[in-house]
Design goal:
This protein has 158 residues and is of the alpha/beta class. It has six helices and four strands, in the order E-H-E-H-E-H-E-H-H-H. It is found in: Cytoplasm.
């Protein structure tokens, strides 16, 4: 996995970036993704994620993660996976924006460790970038089951 982590405002210590990479690599292997698949994770402040949420989703509140999948089924864009294969270039699945401060608040609220909640947030967003969603109950069952399998096998059990 070619993962770019943007932590310019140092909202998390730089050492945490290795842990993030390990978890994303682990999840990518579970999905049997090509090693050259690309994505990015931006670690941002609560204020910044609220601004993005307001501008792009019309929701004026802080959230833990926002995903921007390049291969969105609702898009009029070309089939990027096929195009990447045809041109022999890496597939880029999109971008995640994560607010670690809000993740910490949720960890306290749900009585999870920060690692468990942060891992949940990363894997949840990662699955969204890979086409999973939880809008319909049937889809939610599939996504949540896979998410829990990844987290449990990585060692982030509830």
């Amino acid at each position: 996995m070619n993962l770019e982590i943007i932590n310019d405002q140092h909202v998390l210590p730089a050492e945490r970036e290795t842990w993030i990479r390990d978890l994303v690599e682990f999840a990518a292997k579970k999905l049997a993704m090509p090693e050259d698949t690309e994505m990015s994770i931006s670690l941002i402040t609560d204020d910044k994620i609220r601004e993005i949420n307001r501008e792009y989703r019309g929701k004026d509140h802080v959230t833990d993660v926002i995903s921007f999948a390049i291969e969105d089924d609702e898009s009029d864009l070309p089939d990027f996976e096929a195009l990447a294969a045809e041109l022999n270039i890496p597939r880029n699945i999109g971008d995640l924006f994560i607010a670690p401060e809000h993740v910490q608040e949720q960890a306290v609220e749900y009585e999870h460790s920060f690692d468990r909640e942060f891992g949940y947030t990363i894997v949840h967003g990662f699955l969204h970038l890979n086409g999973y969603d939880h809008i319909e109950p049937e889809d939610e069952k599939v996504m949540i089951k896979l998410q829990e399998e990844i987290l449990d096998s990585y060692g982030l059990k509830r």
